[in-house]
Each structure stands twice: as C-alpha cells, then as structure tokens.
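[worker-b] picked up task from shared queue
[worker-b] task type: protein-ligand structure
[worker-b] ligand name resolved to zinc ion; SMILES cross-checked against name lookup, match
[worker-b] sequence length check passed
[worker-b] input payload:
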Amino acid sequence: MNPHHVIKSISAPSDTMLFDRCMDWPALRCPVCGNNFSHAQAVYTLLGRGSESEGLYRGSYLVARETHGDRDAIAVRVHGETCGHRWDVVFQQQEGQTFVRIDVLDPRAGSGLKERRY
Ligand SMILES: [Zn+2]
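[worker-b] inference finished, payload out:
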C-alpha cells in the first residue's frame, strides 16, 4: 500500500483546524479528529507541474506524488500520537506567497506507530 496516498486534501484549513493552543503555544492539531498530540516524521518535496519547478528542496526526500501547483511544495509528514491519523502539512509556493494546506493520508497505509523509516 502506498504510504503517501492522499484520501482528502484540505486547501483552505482554518487556523483552529491547523493549531490548538497548549499554554498559549500553538500545537499542531489532527485534521481528522482534532487531537493535539502529534509527531512530525519527515520532510518531503512535492514537485510542481510547471516549468518553474526547481526540483528537490534541500534536506527533503522526493515523495511519490506531485503537487497540483506549478511550483514545488514542502510536505511535513505528521503522525497523530494517540489517534493514529496521518497527514501532511503542505507549504505550497505560489507566485510570491506560501500557502498552507493539509493532505490527509490513508490511515491503512501507516503502521500505527511512528513512521520515520519512510
Ligand atoms: Zn486524529
């Protein structure tokens, strides 16, 4: 099973969908269930489809899918500690701005444990 398979893309997540507050510090929130316990697992490049793609971001792996944008995107893989959900926080370059979206990943493709091995 492809561990990078996206089952839902949330292109305009609200601030409260992205973050919870723990003692006033922003903490990532699971986009599926809202839980705020998570682990960042890896950093991937999603290649853009346009002529402005510049290839791999430094320090990242190439993931087996493209972004919908012309330019490249950085995907930070996150695993819910207690809920087991998996998602990418995606930073999509577009013109002079960096937009944030969430790609929810197929939970069946994860081991249920940390997945730094990918
Ligand atoms: Zn969850």
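[worker-b] attaching auto-annotations
[worker-b] Residues 30, 32-33, 35, 80, 83, 85 surround zinc ion (CB under 6 Å).
[worker-b] releasing lock
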